[in-house]
Amino acid sequence: MQLLELKIKYPASFSNTGEYSFKSGLYVKPKAKGLGIIGLAELAISKFLSEEIKDQNGRPASLKQLARSFEYIFNCDFGSIYDKQAEIYNRKSYNLTKSLDFLKNVLEQNKKNRNQKKMKE
């Protein structure tokens, strides 16, 4: 907690050079059917709109911050996250949450398979 307080009081002392020593080993297939680049953008935008992810000052993270984090974690590039947001908003209403629906179905199928496996035991 003290470190966080110091970081808030003296941000220059904790400046980030922009270089990360960590290199993610995760990648996304750009045009994957269920969760490609546009799917990750859908997740980032949804998290942004929820305002549940906060920045270091306790304020809701910006869409740009979230997009950069997703790009860093999954070794991808959205280009302009705002263009991706427009692309998602241009979907028909029944396709608005295509990637979220895909993930929901994956969880439901996994739960069903686990329950079937338990019943066999």
List the helices and strands and how they pair.
Elements: H1 2-9, H2 37-50, H3 63-74, H4 81-89, H5 98-120
Core attributes:
121 residues, mainly alpha, 5 helices, 55% helix, 0% strand
Q: What structural category arises from helix and sheet content?
A: mainly alpha
> Secondary-structure element sequence?
HHHHH
Radius of gyration: 19 Å
The shape, in one word, is: extended
Q: In terms of per-residue confidence, which ranges show pLDDT below 50 for 5 or more consecutive residues? A: none
Strand content: under 5%
**What level of helicity do the residues show?**
40-55%
In DSSP terms (H or I, runs of 4 or more residues), the helix count works out at 5
Distance N terminus to C terminus? 48 Å
Quick description:
The protein is mainly α and 121 residues long. 55% of the residues lie in helices and 0% in strands.
Write structural notes for this entry.
α2 (37-50) runs antiparallel to α3 (63-74) and α2 (37-50) crosses α4. The mean pLDDT is 89. Helix content is 55%, strand content 0%. The chain has 121 residues and is an all-alpha fold. The protein is built from five helices and no strands. The chain is extended and about 60 Å long. The chain starts with a helix and ends with a helix.
